[in-house]
Request: fold
Amino acid sequence: MTSTSLLHFFEALCWAVIVFLAIAGWGTAALRLLRVPKPSLPLAAIAGFSIFVFLGGCLNLTQGISPAARLALIAVGVVCFLLIRPTLVPARVDTQHPSTPRSSWTRPVLFLAACVFLIRFGASVHTSYYQHDDDYNFYLAAPVKMAALHAYAADPFSERRVMSSLGGNYFLQTLILSELPVEDIQMADRAFGLLLVVFVAVGLGAVFRLNPLQRALLILFLLLTPQLQFNLTFVVLPYALFCGLVFLASDLDELESRRTLQALLLGAAAATIASFKSTYLPHGVLFFVFIALLHARRRGISAGLRTLVFASLGCLIVLLPWMIASHAASGTWFYPLLGKGYQYSAYGLFPSPSGGNSLKTIVKVMIFNMPLLAVLLVEWFWCEPDERTRVLAALTSAALVASVLVGLATGGDSVRRYNYPAILSAILLLYLAAAHWYNLHPTLRPRLLEAASAVLCVCLAMYIGFNSWTHEYQATLLCLRDSLTDFHIVPSATVRSYADMEAAIPQGPDHTLATVDYPFLLNFRSRSINIADIPGAASLPPGWPSRSDGNALAAYLLAHHLRYLALSFTPSTMSDVETREVTELANPSTTQWIKSEAQIRLASYRQYNQLIQTRRHLYDADDLIVLDLQQPTR
Reply:
């Protein structure tokens, strides 16, 4: 820890707060234009994230994600926030706090929640853990490349470019990169998400008419439970936005007479979540479908159809700019619902992720989602059957159905990770339903349902926090320690090695394909570089020639104007690659998705190994190689 590192620590936290206020400022201004007289901060922030993702998609289409444009968006948002100043909670409930006396436990619980927030917020500056097969070879590189080229550039040989995200998450990460280094990039998810969790929890406590202690406990439960941060994929911010969907649907104080606006915001928020990760789309869409059914049941068919139509319209408006770019860059409007694009299974070379033992997959997915079914039954049959509680049941139902669908589509692979934000918010918000039910029936004793739901929240927090696989609480403390130091993702020697390697690549019309450990160190403005994160898993038609030799691969790449091949790979590591992939293929618990990728990697690295023996080396040092595919070895 040094004075410089402490200064950077506070600078990073302040910048995250400024950008968050700018996002809320855009939301506040838009809501005022739509005649919401005093927008609350939760409502403004949720709307603001949708607006920013939409504007980012429009800038992406015009290659306008420049530093000046990003700073202008932030500056305008901050000015709007300072001039309009949203209220903390919906204005109509400011004077409608429950009449129960303040408990002596309220302040200690709030103090504990504040401590948890400050620790987690401080730990969001740096992270001591990056996932080697995800973060290093793409998730760090995508926002760096976007910032360099002012757009989510085409990477047809990147599997994650096709499958993972439309790019809304990377745009938010470029806002962090406007003033901070790449070491702080995870703040776009974790810092923004934690800030939004706090304000949404305050808003939910207000619209559900919780007493002060219940509000404090709700904030504590939502903050105390860590999110599974396996890699740099967005988890915390989507989790906060799923809670925000409940707020939007239950906020009758601000939106009761503005049903069309409410539906538009529901669809826009669902689209915002989906722009961060493709597997989140079914959860958000099913949620507003269930809300439309709820409105149809309580207010008539026309009200339900209006909710469905305008929510779908809001979803399409936010996603459309990103979908257009995805179709141009990856061959699909939205993977996999609207096409597989350049993903390997589109060419029939290897089985798709959903292949494999279907019965085994179904059993695995169903067992995993049993807790959601239990929560849904409690919310439906035990809790109050009013509209607000039915909104919570809608989220649980959407999370349950979508988690089953996504689990089956991915062949049972990583069911938790691909559905985590919706599942976690649905389970934790059971406390909200229980507390609301008790407040409507205060004469009931004992408070069994509220106490049981509180115990469930604590047990869930402990289970995830002390999980032997991820050690979330321990990881948070390690990240806080690193956040207070001069942390760097890679040593300076590695940075110099990549600069030397890149300098060896001739400038000109010929492009480069890179399968390297740290592509985020490359200068994407000086040369045209395509990322092959899992070589062979995505490719331009007619598909990567995985069944052929290295010469066939060279001919294929040259036909697509890719003359140079940059590799973090040497012949001496081929035996390690074969051992790893063969072991993965022999593992009976491995899903079809992982098996297909293991086969793809094994075939591709064998081709790379052949090319290393037969093509001219432009650079060969520090485990980095650059090949000229057009010139054979002399």
Remarks:
- Residues 94-98 have pLDDT under 50 and may be disordered.
